[in-house]
Structure formats: structure tokens, C-alpha cells
């Protein structure tokens, strides 16, 4: 009883109350906690699983896993939980999307699905692959000794192209084939390839990923290695895009006065076209709504810089967009045509005679909205000060 008296006395002292009043207060608090515990909603496993979505990405040092981590950090909430998964490359990611339980969405290269034609997979499953949105371009990195200055010098040399099934492996083989180069390929994982490059066991290592890649930026070259240029010519121009590495991307591998010309391949968010109103279809629908509605949050400081290249409405040749994504974009297009912001933007563009591509127009519109928001906030602050 003495312990209880001391507790009540402490409460009474804090509230300036008598012992009897303090006891009543304490009893009220205890009863309130008990009632709260009784009425708190129980954990519902079914609801938790219904809102959980697996995203298969890439290796621990690549860009895919950082993009998947951004998805989780931005979108996780009461109704949606994103689980990033380490993957084994674009080809394997496509297989996982089609056949592996728990994998709902995957990050893959745009050219990966073509390789599935050579594999004995279920044609019906391949035909049901869809995309949510085009993402960003992934640059082709070739690290080689500074004594090698032309990619054609890799003919007959040992070149690592990552594990079988990876996007790097696929793209490397296609590029070398289109350029008529026949290296002696090895298939070590990326981390192992850098050690073997330093020891001289291999002469070059290829990695296809969105710059900047942390593992490559942290690669200790001792002045011995550099990023090798890749020519944009012939059949290469039919499948890939020109790109460039600057000294700011990789200070140890690119000279300040001489950027490195390279190639890039597009990436996308791939998904399986599940039957409408099925559990897995509804998960994708919930993800699309959250991702598209909150996309501006991916452009904030602290997120991967590759998000700035994403155009949600961009088409992907040879791919069909999954229905929830297309429906969302259609609704947004209707809403935007009648909004005051769009009308102001259209007047701004027309008045200045600005003509740009659809993708550039999307970027300019976002910048216009950001400028308009900053202007409105500045005016509100000025009015408060007056």
C-alpha cells in the first residue's frame, strides 16, 4: 500500500490535488489504458499480406536495388508495403515475375524480353508480360587497363560480362556481336570481377547500370584503369542510345578534360498481367495508384538522380502497358486538360513560341509547377509579413 500511496502522492503533487483526487485521477488513467488495450485493433495477417508487394531488383551494389529502396521508403504506409528483393539480372527477373511466388513487379532492361524467345518458356506467360512505366537509361560501363584505348582491342581478350541471365550478360553479348568483336568471356559476379581485373586475370569488366554506380565510383584504380569508350555506329544505333560519362560521375576513371562516350539501354517496371480483380491484380492496382500519385516525391533531394529521367507516360516499343497504369494515365490526362495549371502552362509555352518533344514537355511542366508553387509560397510569406 505504501508504494501505491507514494505514486498517488506524486500524481497529487504534479496536479495540485488531494490524496483522494490523486487516487481518482490514477484510477481514471489506469481504466483508460485498460480500455484502450481492449479496443485496440488486433493485427490482421490477411490485411497485411494483401497490402504487401514484392519488387525484384538487382545486385546489392547496383542501381536497381537503390531504386527499389526508394520505392519502399516513399510508398510504405498503412495500405501498402513494398519489399525490395535482390535479383540476379533482367532475364531472371522476368522469369521470377512470371513464375515465382511473392514477386509482383520487377525492374528490367527493355531488351531483355527478346532473349526469352530463345528459351523454352511457356509462350502464354511471356505474352502476358506488361509494363507499368518506362524508367531511366542504363549506361554500359567497361572498365579496362589504360593501355587498352579502343574496344576492338578486347578481341580475344578475357572480358567479364557478369553471370548468365543478367542484363549485363545479355547486353554485352549483343554489343560485341554487333561490333564484330569476339572476346573470351568470363561470368564472374561483379564484386569478383574487380579483384580479378586488378590481378590481371581478366583484361576488362562490363557492367550495365544507371550511373553513378557506387561500386564503380569506389573502385580503387591506382591510376591503372579507365572507362573504355564504345562507338555509336552501325547496328548499335538501332537498339541503343548514345550516352556519356563525365569526370563528375567517376573521378578516378574519367579524365576531367575528356568525357567518355558510351551506350545506354532503357529500363522499365515490368509486371505480370494477372486476371482483373484477382488478389495480385489488386496489389498492382494499389501500387500504381500510390506510385503515380506521389511521383513528385521521388524527385526530392536524397532520392536517386535517375528518377529525374523518368517520364510516366512514355511508351515502350514492343511492350503493352498494364491496364491499371493506363487507366490512371487516362484519368490524369482528362483532369489536367481542364486544370488552371495546365492552362497557364499552355499559355506560357504558346506565348514564347516554345516547341519541344513530349518528354521534354513533361519535364518543363513539372518545373513550371514547382516554380508556380515556390512563387505562391513567397507571396503568402510576404503577405504575412505585411
Topology record:
Layout: H1 2-15, H2 19-39, H3 45-50, E1 52-56, H4 63-75, E2 81-85, H5 90-99, E3 105-109, H6 112-115, H7 123-127, E4 129-145, E5 158-160, H8 167-179, E6 184-186, H9 190-199, E7 204-209, H10 214-217, E8 225-227, H11 236-239, E9 241-245, E10 260-272, H12 279-293, H13 323-337, H14 340-351, H15 358-385
Helix pairs in contact: 1-2
Description:
This protein is an alpha/beta fold. It has 3 domains: 2-39, no CATH class; 46-332, 3-Layer(aba) Sandwich (D-Maltodextrin-Binding Protein, domain 2); 339-385. It contains 15 helices and 10 strands. The protein has helices at residues 2-15, 19-39, 45-50, 63-75, 90-99, 112-115, 123-127, 167-179, 190-199, 214-217, 236-239, 279-293, 323-337, 340-351, 358-385; strands at residues 52-56, 81-85, 105-109, 129-145, 158-160, 184-186, 204-209, 225-227, 241-245, 260-272. Strands 1, 2, 3, 4, 5, 6, 7, 8, 9 and 10 form a 10-stranded mixed sheet that branches. Helix 8 links the parallel strand 5 (158-160) and strand 6. Helix 1 (2-15) packs across helix 2. 31% of the residues are buried. The model is unreliable at 1-17 and 22-26 (pLDDT under 50).
Amino acid at each position: 500500500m505504501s508504494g501505491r500511496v507514494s505514486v498517488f502522492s506524486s500524481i497529487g503533487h504534479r496536479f495540485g490535488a488531494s490524496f483522494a483526487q490523486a487516487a481518482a485521477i490514477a484510477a481514471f488513467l489506469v481504466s483508460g489504458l485498460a480500455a484502450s488495450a481492449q479496443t485496440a485493433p488486433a493485427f490482421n495477417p490477411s490485411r497485411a499480406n494483401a497490402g504487401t508487394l514484392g519488387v525484384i531488383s538487382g545486385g546489392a551494389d547496383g542501381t536497381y536495388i537503390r531504386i527499389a529502396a526508394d520505392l519502399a521508403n516513399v510508398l510504405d504506409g498503412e495500405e501498402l508495403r513494398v519489399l525490395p528483393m535482390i535479383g540476379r539480372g533482367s532475364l531472371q527477373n522476368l522469369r521470377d515475375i512470371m513464375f515465382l511466388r511473392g514477386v509482383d513487379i520487377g525492374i528490367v532492361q527493355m531488351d531483355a524480353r527478346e532473349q526469352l524467345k530463345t528459351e523454352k518458356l511457356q509462350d502464354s506467360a511471356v505474352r502476358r508480360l506488361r509494363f507499368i512505366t518506362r524508367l531511366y537509361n542504363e549506361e554500359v560501363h567497361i572498365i579496362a587497363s589504360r593501355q587498352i584505348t579502343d574496344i576492338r582491342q578486347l578481341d580475344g581478350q578475357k572480358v567479364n560480362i557478369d553471370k548468365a541471365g543478367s542484363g549485363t550478360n545479355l547486353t554485352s553479348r549483343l554489343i560485341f556481336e554487333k561490333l564484330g568483336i569476339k572476346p573470351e568471356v568470363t561470368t564472374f559476379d561483379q564484386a569478383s570481377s574487380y579483384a580479378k581485373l586488378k590481378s590481371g586475370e581478366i583484361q576488362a569488366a562490363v557492367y550495365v547500370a544507371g550511373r553513378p554506380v557506387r561500386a564503380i565510383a569506389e573502385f580503387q584504380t591506382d591510376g591503372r584503369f579507365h572507362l573504355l569508350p564504345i562507338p555509336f555506329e552501325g547496328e548499335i544505333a538501332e537498339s541503343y542510345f548514345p550516352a556519356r560519362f563525365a569526370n563528375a560521375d567517376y573521378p578516378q576513371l574519367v579524365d576531367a578534360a575528356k568525357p567518355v562516350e558510351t551506350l545506354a539501354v532503357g529500363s522499365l517496371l515490368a509486371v505480370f498481367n494477372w486476371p482483373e480483380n484477382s488478389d495480385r491484380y489488386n496489389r498492382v492496382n494499389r501500387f500504381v495508384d500510390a506510385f503515380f500519385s506521389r511521383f513528385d516525391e521521388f524527385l526530392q533531394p536524397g532520392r536517386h538522380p535517375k528518377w529525374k529521367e523518368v517520364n510516366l507516360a512514355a511508351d515502350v516499343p514492343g511492350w503493352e502497358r498494364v491496364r491499371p497504369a493506363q487507366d490512371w494515365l487516362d484519368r490524369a490526362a482528362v483532369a489536367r486538360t481542364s486544370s488552371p495549371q495546365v492552362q497557364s502552362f499552355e499559355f506560357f509555352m504558346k506565348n514564347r513560341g516554345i516547341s519541344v518533344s513530349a518528354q521534354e514537355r513533361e519535364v518543363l511542366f513539372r518545373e513550371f509547377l514547382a516554380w508556380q508553387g515556390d512563387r505562391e509560397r513567397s507571396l503568402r510569406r510576404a503577405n504575412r509579413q505585411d
